[in-house]
Predict the 3D structure of the following.
Amino acid sequence: MGAMNRSQEPTIRTLGALRASGYRARPVKQELRDNLVARLKSGEPVLPGVVGYERTVTPQLADALLSRHDFILLGLRGQAKTRILRTLPDLLDEWVPTVAGSPLREDPLAPVLASTIARIEREGDDLAVEWLHRDERYHEKLATPDVTVADLIGDVDPIKAAAKKLSLDDPEVLHYGLVPRSNRGILAINELPDLQARIQVGLLNILEEGDVQIRGFPIRLRLDVALCFSANPEDYTNRGNIITPLRDRIASQILTHYPRTRDESATITDQEAWTDRGGVPVDVPDYLRDAIEEVAFQARESELVDQGSGVSARMGIALLENVLSNAERRALVTGADRATARVSDLFAGLPAITGKLELVYEGEREGPRHVAEGLLGKAARVVFEARFGDALKPSDKGADDAAVQPVVKWFGGGAKVDLADDLSDPELADRLAPIDALEALAKKHLNPEGDAQLAAAMEFTLEGLHQCGLVAKQDLVGGRSYHDTFEEMVRSFNS
């Protein structure tokens, strides 16, 4: 019965009926192991919904569970550590029996409290049995410096003693903390180094012996708990540390990482971002989608960003949502029934970036906004060069006849084009139409579909030329102006 999956709560309600059913209890870690074995044999994913870890983190986690280890996930912010921990209850049996009314959800066939053992002796086969769903067997605690031993392990409850008229040396007056109350389940502690050292000491016996002692009471609770932790390497020096004896008792340390490719990153973003809004539909061209993901990759390589802190995957998620919202807002203002995201919407997503970057000293001097704009520009350039590589190169003749040159030369006569963020699609197309060869370039390298996507592709092409230093740009309130780079140089010299 313990390994069977059930859609309905079992009907057994007494200890006698449970014994007659042939039920056999298993330790939680054995339960996790057995169900993982079944999942591996069936070919089901070990970590459903977690992308990019199939050949790295997932095998290490599976090995830890197969070894019946307590483990810690070690990685920077936004690397799905908490998400991984929250998938673990799926590896538990759907239902397990407990002693009705027990604060520790005890196994009717293996009680741990003296009071429960006494109840079984008194009530025998008539002892009431309840069923616990696997979702109720997972507890999560964010470690903070103010967590106490009483929070995790337990303490004497004087109110209970007064209410029941018991002395303070009676075990019945104990209040059990989160660890004992996680008996028969999984306890996940996030940001472990934030726990004070003296609190971490309280976990040593649980990991080594599987028992706890509360306030010096001569009782030993043989708990059945699977413990798992998460930590950020930065925390080891900035906020705290994991004491050596505790680190030694955590059997497996699993290193997480950020997505290795833009495709993996995009899959995560699409999975997590709020895109199905039911409002004005927004089309996001694939080149712009690539640029959104590239921003995080550029941030993780930037000398202005503190790489010890990391760049969370949440940045790409928030950026995509802001891009969609800016395009949606423009469509609502202009009365369009559909929107196409543009490179201007990418730069409008600055608020999704500035608050998620930890900057080094040089970055702080430049300012979060300037650093974020630089990252957006670098991301746009990487995608532009990947799409327009041949167009940026001169022909074999060695002349200055690269395919982008007609666009660049158009600005050479002092021409400029002013673009506002709230231009409708036809208005944007009209502003960009006079620029020589711009439409042909955009069509050839970005493959737009329809007039709205063509206008957006032309704007991205112009921005890409600016990021490559071939066209100058001046930011305006609510827009920007593109003009000749030589004119920009003269203006800078005169100023």
